[in-house]
Amino acid sequence: MNWQRRLFELMQPQRGRMLAALGLSLLASTAGIGLMAVSGHFIASMALVGAGAAAINYYTPAALVRLFAILRTGGRYAERLCGHDATLSILARLRGWLFGRLIPLAPAALAEQRGAQLLSRLRADIDTLEQSYLGLWLPSAVAACSALVVLVVAACWSGWFALLLMPLLLFAGAWLPWRLQASHADDAAQIDRDAEALRAAWADALAGRAELTMWGAEDAFDARMEQLTAQREAARARTQRGLARADAMLAACSGIALSVALLIGVLAMQQRHLDGPGLALLAMLAMAAFEPLLPLPLAWSRLAAIKAAAQRVFELADRAPVVLDPATPVAMPQATDLHLREVWMRHAQHGEWALRGLNLDLTAGTHLALVGASGAGKSSLAQLLGRLYPYQGSVTLGGTALDQLGADDVRARLAIVEQAPYLFDASLRDNLRIAAPDADDATLLRVLAVAQLDEFLRELPNGLDTWVGANGVNLSGGEARRLAIARALLVDAPVLVLDEPSEGLDALTTAALYKSLAVETRGRSVLLITHRLGGIAALVDEVAVIEQGRIVARRTVEGFAAQTTDSLRDAG
Ligand SMILES: Nc1ncnc2c1ncn2[C@@H]1O[C@H](COP(=O)(O)OP(=O)(O)OP(=O)(O)O)[C@@H](O)[C@H]1O
User: pTM for the complete prediction?
Assistant: First the structure.
């Protein structure tokens, strides 16, 4: 299905408002043409009366002038109201539709997209698509219908006049805008590419300002921005020149039409088929016929951008989610033993394997640490358990395959605190309540105490109402991580997976955190992912070692500590 059809289908629910705006716009436009033509006739008649040449019926044309003027002004006002209402509804629908499509894609099917860049590009694309109705299709439809009305009126008076007017209208209303958009398609693509590159550069400049300043790379960065801006402006200027040429040619067409009308009109006057006011009406009609065509060059210069935006949006929306919920999820088992057999997983479809035939058992109530070097695959395992990425091999929870269970059911059993948890631009309370919307303040304070944030909270003048900022920017890394741990504790899930919870914490706080977590999670399973071994004995009973995506050893925590000491002694 081509992109226009799909776009129209998406706009279908707003069909009524769109048609109403079209009708009103057509009314305003034809009333404008009528006003010009009747005014010409009326003024010429009045001049003749003034010269004493004739007596005329004053009332009918005066009433028509008033009627057309009212219809033109009122129609234009109502059309704007209705058109913008339709556009805003289309915008809301497009945004909602796209958001609904994107949610199941993140993160696996959007692996190659950067969050901020994706967001700003989609925003720009949706804004461009929003213009498709009001900025392109509506003026085109109005111009076509108005031209048809003028041709019918002209044909009623003289077939020749209509025949001569038609090619001029076709040239100005169809060929000119089409030619303009075709000859500037490369410029439109260039503007689009440069805008995308500039958006990415701006996102980098804002996020990486400190690095750019620190390493003295600001000038090079600024030069790149300037080059992109200059390139885009050059393409814009070429398009503007094309637009100016098209406008001039349109005005020339209108002038030629006027000359044709005068020529035919004068000939008709000689044969006494037309009087002076009739000639003025004809001339004004010919000129006014081109008025609805004036927005067309600009409207059609938008076509390439609209097409590119639609194709990008549909390409993204058509992507299949990589992790699919089963059509009929199996009922959640009571048991919570977790078994992984020969599990392979990677982040991108053709990327490197992060887990390579991993085997791991976490029977109910076990507290296990997963340790390994950076890049060994620890976080990948947490992401797999959170059902964010597909896998090969067998993963069972309570004896049922993980991919047979509903994703929400799995998440209710498995609470996962990621290595870089996301915090929302909201208060501490709201960030916690995302996990348990009904939790009261006492419950929140209790889990914050378990996460060793009670002292921190006491020092905050606004307590739970403290604003954490976008992605917890107002908190330290360690505070943000502990807030995420507190949030996970609210779920009361039988299996808790903690990815590097001690990152950014001093040894004393780490020890206190592990101790309170040990009490809080008694009877539940814990998978502690870490590369910092200090203090883990307070929380876990066993340690599994991961290397290059496989478990290579598993020991009691005491056995592991003894072996590590021996290895260090041997190395020394
Ligand atoms: N989003 C991603 N896209 C592509 N590859 C990834 C992604 N995340 C991790 N990887 C790759 O997967 C492999 C395992 O990474 P993972 O983050 O699981 O390691 P880790 O043991 O948790 O390391 P660290 O202790 O440094 O966090 C690495 O080779 C890494 O480069």
Answer: 0.71
